[in-house]
Design a protein that fits this description.
With 250 residues, this protein is α/β, with parallel strands linked by helices. The protein is 23% helix and 28% strand.
Length: 250
């Protein structure tokens, strides 16, 4: 299993793309699709026209807005250059309503020459080929259903928090994961609402017994402090500061 970070920041970060993660197992999967992540996906050399599954953690714009430009390109290329396989969009409650509206509202989207399937998931595992996906509800916004994902393949496990606060479900999602990519929006000494800070990330990783912690989803203020050291006060394992286009073998 290989993880490529497409976006390690937020929509307001001046140098990092917003949330987006490419995971390659026997499948090629995208987790979230925030602003500027499409450009980074293209830089990886991945054939975006063969991607069949995109999974979303929630629907704040910094986690899905590049889908619009991706889909516009997919429709154009499939009509005038090469056919593409059907596309499945997976996410929390609200997925069908949001993407149903997008597909009806944007010019040309509803006449795409491939099928688009919309699937809502919550706290029940499913398989895509030989890859097992475990979605689990996490706490982030009281107005949205938000989920994290665990990806299991060939005896390895990768956990992705999405946007989250510390909660028991997140610890369970990360339990004994080889790699956990966690929302480190803020430094421990400057916490913000709705997200974890570096200390929370270290706490989750330590309680879950993960092997390697990747800090990601940074707001600009997080760059001003040593968030790796802050997480390390609570987690004794390996800690990595995520960056755009970083590749990690799980």
């Amino acid at each position: 299993m290989r993880l490529t970070i497409l976006g390690s920041g937020t929509n307001i970060h001046p140098t990092r793309a917003a949330a987006g993660y490419l995971v390659q197992t026997d499948q090629t999967l995208l987790f979230d699709f925030g602003p500027r992540t499409l450009a980074n996906l293209i830089k990886t050399g991945t054939d975006r026209h063969r991607i069949t599954h995109i999974l979303f953690s929630h629907f704040h714009a910094d986690h899905f807005s590049d889908f619009v430009t991706f889909f516009f390109d997919a429709v154009y290329v499939s009509k005038f250059a090469q056919a593409r396989p059907d596309l499945t969009l997976i996410g929390p409650r609200g997925t069908k309503r949001l993407f149903g509206t997008i597909l009806r509202a944007f010019p040309g989207f509803k006449t795409a020459p491939f099928r688009v399937r919309l699937r809502e998931v919550a706290d029940r595992s499913f398989s895509l080929g030989a890859t097992r996906i475990v979605p689990r509800t996490v706490q982030h916004s009281s107005h949205l259903h938000c989920i994290g994902y665990r990806i299991e393949h060939n005896g390895k496990a990768l956990a992705y928090s999405g946007d989250a606060q510390y909660c028991e479900n997140l610890v369970r999602l990360c339990r004994r994961a080889d790699v956990a990519v966690l929302d480190c929006s803020f430094p421990a000494n400057r916490p913000g609402s709705g997200h974890m800070h570096a200390g929370d990330c270290g706490r989750v990783a330590q309680e879950a017994g993960v092997r390697r912690l990747i800090l990601s989803h940074f707001y600009p203020i997080a760059e001003r402090y040593d968030v790796k050291a802050q997480a390390g006060r609570l987690f004794a394992g390996r800690i990595t500061i995520g960056r755009d286009l970083m590749e990690i073998d799980v």
